[in-house]
Write a structure and sequence with these properties.
Blueprint lengths: L4 H10 L5 E3 L13 E2 L4 E2 L5 E4 L4 E5 L8 H13 L6 E5 L21 H28 L7 E3 L2 E3 L6 E3 H8 L28 H6 L14 E7 L6 E5 L1 H5 L4 E7 L2 E6 L2 H9 L3 E4 L8 H14 L3 E6 L2 H7 L2 E9 L11 E6 L4 E5 L4 H11 L7 E5 L13 H13 L3 E4 L2 H6 L7 E10 L2 E11 L3 H12 L8 H10 L24 E8 L12 H20 L4 H7 L5 H13 L10 E10 L2 E12 L2 E12 L6 H21 L4 E2 L2 E2 L17 E6 L14 H16 L13
Parallel strand pairs: 5-6, 10-20, 18-19, 22-23, 26-29
Antiparallel strand pairs: 1-4, 2-3, 4-5, 7-8, 8-9, 10-13, 11-14, 12-13, 15-23, 16-21, 17-18, 17-20, 21-22, 24-25, 25-26, 27-28
Amino acid sequence: MGMNRRDFLKVSAGASGGLMLSLSLTGCAASGKRGYEPETGEWTPDAWLELTTDGHIYFTLARVEMGQGTYTGLTTLIAEELEVRPEAITPRFAPADPEYRNPLYKLQLTGGSTSLATSWEPLRTAGASARSLMVQAAARVWQVDADECSAHDGTVVHPNGTDSIGYGQLVELAAKEEIRGDVALKPRSEWKYIGRQRGRLDARAKATGSAEYGIDVELPDMVYSVVTRSPRYGGRVSSFNREDVLAMPGVVDVVEIGRGVAVVADSYWKARKAQNALTVEWDFSEAFSMSTEDVFNSYRKAADEDNGESERSEGDFESVAEAASRVLEVEYEQPYLAHATLEPMNATAWYRGDRAEVWAPTQAPDLAQIAVARVTDLAPDEVVINTTFLGGGFGRRLTQDFVEEAAEVSYKTGRPVKLIWSREEDTRHDLYRPAMLHRLKASVSDGQVTGWHHQIVGPQILDWYVRNAAPAQYPWAPKFMYDSLGSVGLMLEGVVTPKDVSAIEGAVEYPYAVEHIDIRHTHTDPGMPVTWWRSVGYSHNGFAVETFMDELAHETGKDPYQFRRDLLANEPRHRDVLDRAAMLADWNTPVQEGRARGIALFKSFGTYIAQVVEAGIENGSIRVYRVSAAVDCGQVVNPDIVKDQIESGILFGITAALYGEITLNQGEVQQSNFHDYPLMRQYERPEVMVDIVDSEADPTGVGEPGVPPVIPALGNALFALTGQRQRRLPLTADV
């Protein structure tokens, strides 16, 4: 491959603009192919990175962008090692393909605050590998030692420091090079972009409206659909007045689907207007019919009858409790919660006979393929999923009911269909954060906590999620096996499939130095549909654990901050963020009259975070004035995004603490819109300060950890203010 500069210029000048360089890295691509195919002129893409002869760089983003910053953060990892500015890379959302699976879940999903943690090394290696190939190709052109060349801002620089060649000119030659041994990643001291404050790459597109969300999709000859669903989960259609609605202006069709009756019209407004004239008779014989009180009564009955499966056992709690001078026993109750994403559920589907194409704001494209396959005559590999930007996810868009509905309507009408849920439908037909019950006991002797017992009562999310998740892991399976795969997955949970920790996460990692610990889960499911919700089990376990810790501090007569600190001697990262949050909040300085502070500490998704909330009561309402947070999330890629996400989690958590409650009356959800399921308003927003630990540990998640500590910290502040302990959410000023 040695050539002089004149020969090189002839090659690069004649190269097609469509030639590209691709990388297939172990664990990142299934095909094992790299480079272009000169016989066909086609290029077989790998999982991550493309460079073209016209100087463009494309990054296939395997995780969705729903406001959490993957579009910027993951691109930065490649840019750092590739030696280009992040702005020089164009991210593109990945199609549904096994190559893009999240290695933690073996599914192509975005959730669990895992995007950065799972991409930290693979994406940097991808960038470094591409850079290495470019340097090797340039060295051959110049006939110099590659170790003497360097890369800078999309070019390879000659050892003389003057001559350089752009990456685009080197693509064809670099595609023929081979990676030599392990690719060295840049040391931290040489980073230009990782750890530096930079703007978001998607900010301009979102500010100008050019970013395409699912609800923005428009297709030629597209029709619009709305669905009337059973007011009780599990209700079935008995009859409906199809002909009356079909005669209305603009109505294209009225069809029964699995979850109700779909009205299809030539405009969204006409579909909604026609829906108002639709009358459906329902069969509720197998429908969920519990009220909120029934749910918690069933939890208490289950807890009384079954102490649950042991999840962590150290020492002998029963013995130490018998010998204790005092045993404190309490119960905490948390309601169902909706996701309330600002972009309601929607999807556009186009069934074309031999294939289907879907445009959707989904957190799980491969599960969306299964959802389409279920309601059509197609196999999953005959379904193309185009992922858009997401107007909020919070776990709701991991479940593909909205995609399934759109696909079924398109299949039955033969038209490209955009299906949109109203806000009321989005609230009343959500899959909710589970309602949970917690029973905690602690033994106290000589002012010291000697034992800790925690019984968690409620459902597991995998029971509801495995329906499409199991088939997505085995897309070759025929459809008649789909439900069987789900059943097998549940039976072999913890053996073939991962253990479902959604009910216990955060509780079993109890960090405090208590010798006798007993943590158990009583698995009971009343039948209300549930799914992941931002911070999942950490959200309800954080409230129970950290509120009870505050109660124990009060019981032993100790300062809540110092009480926790004394029990964290063997947990330096926990203790560090606790100290930082207390210092940031001026913990030992009195607050003004009418206010009080509360503190809480919780580790979730590998991230340590402590928060101090300063709150009061004004005009009969709870008012949060200030939140001071200290976070240790390992190596930070973009400090601004970390602060954004911690602050966003805090506001999300305060909203849940003050307003979050889905109530049931004979199986029907009582809330419908923001008037009775409100979000925090701008005028209520507290001052939020975030202290980020400068760490060299591998990065962990930041999208969710801001939620769990703020809820108990607020409750603890209200106790300090009023002397009344609240053990049920949402919190109230009327105590």
